[in-house]
Sequence to fold (101 residues):
Amino acid sequence: MTMRWDVTLAILAMGLVTYFCRAGGYAVLRAVRTPPFLDALLRNLPAPLFAAYVALALSRQDMAAALASIPCAAAHARWSNFGLSIVIGVAAMALLRWAGM
Fold:
């Protein structure tokens, strides 16, 4: 299978645009002092976004997913570590699927 040149060019262009958008944000935030409200917003944004993604995903799943969310939430409440809570949630879901749920 060969890759078409126009598709390759489009992929590279999208990568460059993505890089410059992210790098531009860092450059602006280094040059401009943000107000305290914006600092607080940016510091506290990941938790509500994660909760929204989880709530949407759970609303479309079965009982096993709801049960697997319990140890996931408990791990996050105990250690406040998103990565660890995701690993525990995935492991709980795998165990429930293995058990036949």
